[in-house]
Design goal:
The structure is a single chain. With 441 residues, the chain is an alpha+beta fold. It is built from twelve helices and 22 strands. Helix 9 packs parallel to helix 11 and helix 10 crosses helix 11. The protein is elongated and about 115 Å long.
Length: 441
């Protein structure tokens, strides 16, 4: 292992700067020249002695402690555990190497080890901006010499790759309830009791109950009016289709559209699995990128997350027909089909429209797309130049194409979800709850 390279400290720089004073007075006599040279030479000799006396890499052991799976968009804790391996004290600076583009705080900190305190744990937080594999680099140590004039800069091999998943903490029931309880229209939750078709239990009649739910035989046996209570059906297939084509490569609120779609899909999957339904996923562009058939259970959520954490938007056209054919060649059971895509492109919307409407009436399709605030603002902005007028005309045409496509889908029995990025996941979940509560599936 390399012995390291010398790095002068601020104290050494200050001493060299002090030697400039006699150098500036050299015009008054040659004695000042020799004084400046002597001072510089003394500082260099002291720095050399300090570097040779500084602790070596064998005197310190560093271990990085980080979870193998991190959450994107959230602060993830990382610990650097330092241990003294020699008998003399060690002080210096430690810096963990993180890739560019990652928001990190506290990855560079001072430390001190001694025989009385041979261990130290330094913590910091890093926030990955997107899903995928994140490679953490080596750990860099700057070990100070006894005089504090020079340090030994060394690199400890510690490179490792961790997985970055969508923020799974946002999938908890508490986070979901907060998102659904928002006053924003896109996040307003469905606030009425379920009206499913699966019998759950009997209870005594209450004012306001539907007379059609009265169980007359049970009422006669118990000598009081009883009503049947229904719950949404369970074990129903929910298939999530994620468009990974070029339309999902654009950015909304600083993140790719596909990132918002993956977050929304996993939130919807969590709620569906909690409700006892089966959830499958299919990611596609010009061909199928990932597929998991509908399954039940909370373990299946981990498999869904594993299948989607590396999903990337490709600069190619999406083949909706191939995706639908692949999905329903393996199952013909009636399903709730939720397609996360972009309806702005009129050419792509034509193909999407034909293949999605072909699912009716056997399946119930839902088309979910993001509301782009920049596009909406451009469509209604007052132009101040000829270029602004062209931009408004183009944006308004795209908005009209979306409204036309959405209207055709709704008129044909499909459901359409459009919401801003902040409420996209909650809007998709509310549509699912609406379907389940009214027994549409």
């Amino acid at each position: 292992m390399s012995p390291g390279r010398p790095v002068p400290t601020g104290l050494a720089v200050a001493l060299v700067a002090a030697a400039l004073v006699p150098a500036a007075l050299a015009v008054a006599g040659s004695v000042f020249v020799w004084l400046a040279v002597a001072l510089d030479a003394a500082v260099l000799l002291l720095c050399a002695f300090d570097f040779l006396s500084a602790p070596r890499v064998s005197d310190v052991e560093v271990r990085r402690a980080v979870e193998p799976v991190l959450s994107s968009g959230s602060a993830n804790p990382v610990r650097l555990e330092l241990s003294l391996r020699g008998s003399r004290p060690v002080r210096g600076l430690v810096r963990d190497e993180v890739p560019p583009g990652v928001d990190v705080r506290g990855h560079q900190q001072p430390f001190a080890l001694s025989p009385d305190a041979p261990r130290a744990t330094l913590s910091y937080a890093l926030t990955p901006p997107a899903r995928g594999d994140l490679r953490l680099g080596d750990v860099h140590l700057r070990l100070l010499g006894p005089l504090g004039l020079c340090a030994r800069q060394v690199r400890l091999p510690a490179a490792q790759t961790v997985k970055v998943y969508p923020d799974l903490t946002a999938l908890t029931r508490e986070a979901l309830a907060l998102a659904m309880a928002s006053d924003a229209p896109a996040e307003r939750t469905l606030r009425r009791s379920a009206e499913g078709r699966e019998f759950e239990s009997l209870r005594e009649y209450r004012t306001g109950d539907d007379y059609r739910t009265v169980d007359w035989k049970a009422s006669a046996r118990r000598a009081r009016t009883m009503v049947r209570v229904y719950q949404p059906e369970r074990n129903q297939p929910v298939l999530l289709l994620l468009d990974c084509g070029r339309h999902m490569a654009g950015r909304v609120d600083g993140r790719r559209k596909l990132d918002h779609a993956v977050d929304a899909a996993l939130r919807l999957a969590k709620v569906s699995l909690d409700a006892g339904d089966m959830v499958g996923v299919l990611a596609f562009a010009s061909d199928v990128r990932a597929y998991l058939p509908p399954r039940k259970g909370h373990e299946h959520l981990r498999l869904l997350t594993e299948a989607l954490y590396r999903a990337e938007a490709a600069l190619e056209e999406s083949d909706y027909g191939r995706a639908y054919d692949f999905a329903f060649a393996r199952s013909s059971r009636r399903s709730l089909v939720v397609l996360f895509t972009d309806l702005v492109d009129p050419d792509a919307s034509g193909t999407l429209l034909a293949r999605t409407l072909a699912l009716r009436p056997r399946h119930l399709p839902v088309v979910a797309s993001l509301l782009d605030p920049d596009l909406q603002a451009a469509a209604t902005a007052i132009p101040s130049s000829e270029q602004d007028a062209y931009a408004r005309q183009a944006a308004a045409r795209l908005e009209e194409d979306y409204q036309r496509t959405a209207l055709t889908l709704r008129d044909s029995g499909a459901l359409v979800v459009r919401a801003p990025a902040k409420g996209f996941g909650a809007a998709a979940v509310n549509t699912y709850l609406h379907v389940k509560a009214r027994g549409l599936l």
